[in-house]
Design goal:
By secondary structure, the protein is of the alpha+beta class. Helices cover 33% and strands 26% of the residues. The protein contains ten helices and 18 strands. Strands 1, 4, 5, 6, 7, 8, 9, 12, 13 and 14 form a ten-stranded mixed β-sheet that branches. A three-stranded mixed β-sheet has the order 3-2-15. A three-stranded antiparallel β-sheet has the order 16-17-18, covered by helices on one side. Strand 10 and strand 11 form a beta hairpin. Helix 3 crosses helix 4 and helix 7 packs antiparallel against helix 8. Bound molecules: 3-hydroxy-3-methylglutaryl-coenzyme A. The site of 3-hydroxy-3-methylglutaryl-coenzyme A has 28 residues, from helix 2, helix 6 and strand 13.
Length: 383
């Protein structure tokens, strides 16, 4: 039985900061951000969006009267959780009107959504008629004036995992690895990530080589079996480095093709920044929408990495309806904010101090909005 991604959608805020302006404000050569890091714009998430609303806004268009009763499992992957006990899956099920479901939250840094997909795949294998809603939602925060600052961003990707999927049929095998590593972590008393940037880059690339080698050993496939290689993209330059490793195995034609496809795959990430769990899947959407020469049956490789650290290389084949089910992302309609406004928005995120607060949400026209906190409970609005 074929199992995989039947539908997919992406959501982020409609505000961004331009990386040239951010570089100038930080007294950095803009080419460091544009070329060295590989980012042009960075999504700025307003206080009125948290992972629950980002996830709900991404997932809502995937749910209709036909599939509402078939979804029996909601797996919410995030590393920007809002509660130590109640899962974001439970919150979002309420907002989306899904009640006959199992709802949970999973965590392993940016790898979480891939873990969720693997769980969903096993669930559908045992329950072929069920559909699993997988969400990866995060807000990437490192702190103002830190070296991680230009690699922030945020947003959510939602996917339905089913049998006979319309978009991507997952292959059976994958290569995977876990090593207890302190390359990036978010202690419970921190809303920002702590990071050893150089170590994180090294582990990312090391795990890519290890999981790709394991995958090839298990499947006997080679680079020539792939139309495109996708990477978790904390910033696009790191994916370029991953691609460079694998291109050592490519002939000239393969180099041209894989580089061209990667250009398509990194376009949206270059405009949004890191969204942690959702980044690899935003890159997948970017490939589908920006590549001119994909065909049904083409195999794509996906490298998922989550600091801490887990890596997995897996693959899938484009399914019969991948061209008709694209979410039609329009990043051009977003509004640019100044660095000053971005800094204010950054500081205005809901604090974990338990105080009652009402957020001004008149400028947030998203369907699902966070309006504040009352009696230590987040207040959500569907508008
Ligand atoms: P940094 O120290 O500010 O930057 O940190 P740098 O000095 O290393 O420069 C970056 C690149 O820009 C270098 O290129 C420079 O040469 C180049 P590279 O050597 O890498 O090829 N550069 C220039 N290029 C053109 N013109 C110029 C110029 N100046 C310099 N004028 C770092 C960069 C990414 C480390 C930092 O932003 C950071 O710590 N970010 C957060 C951590 C991160 O994203 N790590 C990625 C791997 S871990 C991961 O993917 C997991 C993650 O998503 C979290 C999770 O799993 O949940 C992060």
């Amino acid at each position: 039985m074929k199992i995989g991604i039947d539908r997919i959608n992406f959501f982020t805020s409609n505000q961004y900061v331009d990386m040239v302006e951010l570089a100038q404000a930080r007294d950095v050569d803009p080419n460091k951000y544009l070329i060295g890091i590989g980012q042009s714009k960075m999504a700025v998430i307003p206080a009125t969006q948290d992972v629950v609303t980002l996830g709900a806004n991404a997932a809502d268009p995937l749910i209709d009267d036909e599939n509402r009763d078939k979804i029996d499992f909601v797996i919410f992957a995030t590393e920007s959780g809002i509660d130590n006990s109640k899962s974001a899956g439970a919150y979002i099920s309420g907002l989306l009107g899904l009640s006959h479901v199992r709802a949970i939250e999973v965590k392993q840094a940016c790898y979480g959504a891939t873990a969720a997909i693997q769980l969903a795949k096993g669930h559908v294998a045992l329950n072929p008629d069920s559909q699993v809603l997988v969400i990866g939602a995060d807000i990437a925060r490192y702190g103002l004036h830190t070296s991680g600052e230009p690699t922030q961003g945020g947003g959510a990707v939602a996917m339905l995992i089913t049998k006979n999927p319309g978009i991507l049929e997952l292959d059976e095998e994958s290569g995977f690895i876990t090593e207890d590593t302190m390359d990036f972590w978010r202690p419970l008393n921190h809303s920002e990530a702590l990071v050893d940037g150089k170590t994180s880059q090294n582990v990312y690339l090391d795990f890519f080589n290890k999981t790709w080698t394991e995958y090839k050993g298990k499947t006997k496939l080679t680079l020539s079996d792939f139309k495109a290689m996708l990477f978790h993209l904390p910033y696009t330059k790191l994916g370029t480095k991953g691609l460079k490793e694998v291109l050592l195995e490519a002939n000239e034609d393969e180099k041209v093709e894989l580089t061209r496809e990667f250009e398509a795959a990194k376009r949206y990430n270059n405009q949004v920044g890191n969204l942690y769990t959702g980044s690899l899947y935003l890159s997948f959407i970017s490939l589908l929408e920006n590549s001119k020469d994909l065909e049904i049956g083409d195999r794509v490789g996906l490298y998922s990495y989550g600091s801490g650290a887990v890596g997995e290389f897996f693959s899938g084949k484009l399914a019969s309806e991948f061209k008709d089910r694209l979410p039609q992302i329009n990043l051009e309609s977003r509004v640019q904010v100044s660095v000053e406004t971005y800094e204010e928005m950054y500081q205005s995120q809901l604090k974990n101090d338990g105080a009652d607060i009402e957020l001004d949400h008149k400028n947030d026209h998203s369907k699902f909005v966070l309006t504040g906190s009352k009696n230590m409970q987040r207040q959500y609005l569907i508008q």
